[in-house]
């Protein structure tokens, strides 16, 4: 009977929360998912333009190593993705880089494939070669707790400078990757996070940078059918439920979750919200404020995002469907996407539909909609001159304050693991400490499964989810890492002197 099944409350309906809820519902748990917004999805929940068109907050890529998400998609029986696509990178000077589909080329040992096949238009070979000493840091950073402790208090900018990366390579290659990968400039990014992100998405294996895109909004193409299957399995998803507190029993275990006047009984609780959302909950929760680990997460930061979508009055030829841009603003990176090429609904329309998203967009959010539209069109025209003569028929401007995690130097010590000091409260999300090695949406989903597995292990009911590990390091990287660990154990001091 349902009343005999453990009651689990999951808070937050993004990749982590839906992943945990899906697994637990399938294992027969009485699981309730609470979402503060009107729809499940977090950043991929839906909005409408003035003209009534559906939009989402930005475009989210799905990279080659997202094995667990791709496995989920197969399990759901849906086909939401484009083929793998090529991408470009622009600066105010024009086209800077074109990336191939790496898996279609002969596979070379990492990082040779990335180095040789990426088509740099202006960056001299001498500058690219200046990155070679950085390979030691890549080897030394193995995603262990010790490696995070060594590198996290150093900025990414310091890391690249001290390993001899040329100023031009940093400015034209590494800094742009940080701005669109970690959403902040290098002097504001943890060196540990920079190494983890770059290795996972680019350096670990030649095809890792290959990416597919959803053929419509993620909310409609993925989350809607996923929610239907969760509900068919018995899970309950309640929107417009903003959690304000959790209640503890006399033994210090969570017994209920509070949403305004509503109280949801719980035998276990899984938090699956972003940093900003978690900080809001802690600010109003006397139960969590009494615990140092939750107070400490108030030290974590988040980054502002500006998501725009423009409908132009004519067809414009855009060489590549996905593009990253740098150098337009000193501390802001941005991307633009040809939705006529990526989204089914725009494939045959007469106008051009462009998504342009800006990260670390603090100084842009106060601008008026009209100023933002003009800025975006001006920037697009620098990359693709045909945009200059286009007229904007419709637009979507979504301002997202403190929307994505800021992996600032020193932040690792304030992040939480999946297990907390409350034995039946578990954490998940892309900012949670784990050892899987993934990033972004894949990491969020994986931590949701890990949290569900902890619940299953606690109650001894059901089967834990099988989590696909990241692809193993290539043999030469494994050998170098093993040698490095052995030398460390012998007391040798290989890292630069600024690393503790």
Automatic annotation (TrEMBL):
<dbReference type="InterPro" id="IPR050464">
    <property type="entry name" value="Zeta_carotene_desat/Oxidored"/>
</dbReference>
<dbReference type="InterPro" id="IPR036188">
    <property type="entry name" value="FAD/NAD-bd_sf"/>
</dbReference>
<dbReference type="InterPro" id="IPR002937">
    <property type="entry name" value="Amino_oxidase"/>
</dbReference>
<dbReference type="GO" id="GO:0016491">
    <property type="term" value="F:oxidoreductase activity"/>
</dbReference>
<feature type="domain" description="Amine oxidase">
    <location>
        <begin position="16"/>
        <end position="456"/>
    </location>
</feature>
<protein>
    <submittedName>
        <fullName>Amine oxidase</fullName>
    </submittedName>
</protein>
<dbReference type="Pfam" id="PF01593">
    <property type="entry name" value="Amino_oxidase"/>
</dbReference>
